[in-house]
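Help! Submission page says 'invalid entity' but I think these are all valid:
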Amino acid sequence: MGSSTALVSAAGWRILFAAILAGLLVRLLTTTPYFATALVLAAAIGLLLLDLARLVGRQRSDASPADAAEARERAKQYEQALGLLDAVTVALFVLAPDGRISFVNRAARLLSGGAAGNLEDVACFRGEAAATILALPIGGRQLLTLADGRAMLVWVGAFSTPDGGPQRLVSAQAVAGELDAIQIGAWHSMTRVLAHEMMNSLTPIVSLSESLIGRERSGAGIDTAALETIGRQSRHLLSFVERYRAIADLPAPKRTPLDPALFLADIDALAGRDLRARGIAFSAALNASRVTAQADAALLRQAVLNLVRNAADAVAGTAEARIGLACVGEGDEVRFEVSDNGPGIGPDRLEEIFVPFFTTKENGAGIGLTLARQIALAHGGQVNARRNAASGMTFVLTIGGQA
Amino acid sequence: MDQLAILIVDDKPDVHQAIRLALEPHVRQIDGILSPEAVAAMVGATRYDCVLLDMNFAAGERSGREGLDALARIRAIDPCVAVLFMTAFGAVSLAVESLKQGADDFLLKPWRNDALVSAVRAAAARTRDAREGTTLEGLERSAIDRALGYHDGNIARTAASLGLSRGALYRRMAKHGL
């Protein structure tokens, strides 16, 4: 503000003086023949105008330090971005349109072991790996086993710069450690549940059979109740193994176009009446448009029914029990949300409930939610549980989408 | 056989049945409850020699919290009774924690009957020692009892070994009902 008003006043004075001098010059030339004086006046006017031009020019050049600061800021941002890319543990390769590697981050340099002109030159991509990556479509993902045995998840993206044309971004992430950890974690939780279940069933069998042998030797006679318990616990173990088979032998889904309205009507027919007879308010809402998702209707029905039955068990002791089923979807992504107003599940249990054979119910089999999740996974989806803000749980089964 | 009274706290009736059948020839009284709620009342009403306590009661529960909670309530009523935790395979670290919190021993499920019987006997012995050792009267009674046994009931030699007059020994024996 200050500098611009100073400019206006400084320029104004010069223009005023120049105008006065110009007026005098005109009068001098029209009334008198004093050419020498006129020449001096004209020179003075010229000098004033020159000064004015320089003043304006200087003011303009004052703006250029700001431009320089902006350039410095941009360079700093660029450095930061490069530093950021180097800090990323995922290896990034940028491929120019001609297939040459035009940029690598630190992880990629470590992976390739130095300079490499093409992707085929990178040691660990030698052989089929490079060809597989180059053949991937934009947005494609693939798990690759490298020449040295490491597993890597490779993703191909695209971007373009004004001067560089369309370029491909190849990112490669080592996943072996993560996969191992997930597998070991799943294995541990399942072993824990299995051991607990089996040991609890075996406890009376082992002890009672020993006692019975002792009684037989001492001539105390047969204890029928003990034999009955041994039989019952053995049958329990058998059915346990049968349930295990149900999870292990899940058939591959046979996908056909999904009709959400028909699907909801089926669920209502299969479960709705039973729920209402038990005093549970059940409602199904459809909010789907132009659904193109494909699913195995029979398997999906089983999965959603399991979620609904699970909700029914959860609200068994709840006054004004309510279960809502909502189908939300568009295109190839469809979501089924089953919500209840029961007591809910503790946050520490949210993942445990999906572990095979884990159950919080007396006489529960511990496979309903596991099967639902298996079916969703077979459809490229997922089942997740979350606690409602007010009360109870919502289980969300998703199929299709970005998977 | 031993005049032992034991209490079973486990939510599974089959486990009760198995323990009863295994311990029947060795103990006098076996009580059982299916939930830890009444454990304080039971321990308050009967001086048990051993409590067999399950660690988890609600289905799906594996934290052992209910068992440890019941242990604390038993200890509040009867600090002397030995508590044997029963735990399924895979909960050993939990069993160690229970020992730190005052359980006497733990029994892995499934158990062998011999191991069950000897664990209960050892627990009962610890209960007896604890009960006698906690009061001056108990100490005095067990000291006199042991001295009498050592001297085959000879009053004069027992009194001499305890540093008492024969009259003083008679009075104390009468007091303890020996």
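Support: the input was valid. A stray whitespace character was the problem, and the output above is from the cleaned input. The mean pLDDT of chain A is 84.
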